[in-house]
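Run: sequence + NAP -> complex structure.
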Amino acid sequence: MVLVTGGTGLVGAHLVLHLIENGENVRAIYRNLESIQKTKDLFLLYKKENLFEKIDWIQADVIDVPSLEIAFENVEYVYHCAALISFNPKDEDLLRKINIEGTANIVNFCVAKAVKKLCFVSSIAALGDLKENEKIITEEAEWNPEKPHSDYAISKYGAEMEIWRGQQEGLNSVIINPGVILGPTIWEQGSGILFKRIEKGFPFYTKGMTGFIAVTDVVKIAVELMKSDLINERFTLIAQNMVFRDLFNSIADALNVKRPAIYASPLLIEIFWRIDWFLSIIFRWKRKLNPATAKSSYSKNLYSNEKIKKTLGTEFIDIHTYIKEISSLRS
Ligand SMILES: NC(=O)c1ccc[n+]([C@@H]2O[C@H](COP(=O)([O-])OP(=O)(O)OC[C@H]3O[C@@H](n4cnc5c(N)ncnc54)[C@H](OP(=O)(O)O)[C@@H]3O)[C@@H](O)[C@H]2O)c1
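>> structure
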């Protein structure tokens, strides 16, 4: 039996589908019935609704230890995809709880139940920082606590430390560090929101840069690593580094809408987040920008995918091609 946490999320739902298509017995955890609907919608989108019934759903929360007991019965392999992705400063405690404590709980169960291997979905946010004269971030980059990191990045780094602790306790594991994951837009978060905003005429672009990857590549590589003899290593997963402007243009072109035309300079973004913060206090609305998201929108971070390419011979789906593919999938 293969256990997938976060099976109602973008990565987990694609992973569950991929595993079932390949004949695996899959158990997935869910927190509430509404979120299962997202996974069902995804199976429908790919016209694979007949496979949905094969999922063994167990209600569990990664921060509720007793609920995980049943989920781990007869489990041999675990993909830990569940996490909170948030850049809202109000979520700092919850990020630590779900991402660090939750991962510690998963590791503890894996050790106690002698699980054969764990694949942990981390993030490029948990990779280290560049030193002077370095230009590209690799798996070897060292985390520098003196440098500013978002609460989300700190929580994913803390989660990786739990995985490393598990390795010391004899657990075989592999960590993947994906860049920004693109997938079908039925998810009202991450890239899903981006597609919707651009479709509605979002006017701004930035010249920031980061790594991107298709969700289907993330899933394929996670399974290949799980099936390999590789253990106790981490791999950066990005198809390509892209400037946000190119990404936005590609999405606008695929959706047949106007490209964002106003350059949001770092200064303008710094002003935006402060206004957004001020208005969120006055009108009690949810903040759309904060220092961390503002900075990441104009930071230029380059990531290397050499290690995974050398290890598995991976060839990635081109991001522009994938954007066209997911745009045509829209229901
Ligand atoms: N999306 C990206 O661009 C990106 C990039 C790099 C790395 N990652 C990492 O990839 C993994 C999957 O991300 P995603 O994009 O699939 O995120 P997502 O769509 O937001 O899904 C998150 C999943 O985690 C579950 N979850 C959250 N808190 C939980 C808890 N306390 N107990 C059990 N389940 C819980 C959610 O369940 P509910 O449905 O109940 O909320 C959902 O199934 C995460 O570890 C994330 O850090 C994502």
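>> summary
Residues 2-182+212-239 form a domain with the Rossmann fold fold (CATH 3.40.50.720). The longest strand covers residues 173-178.
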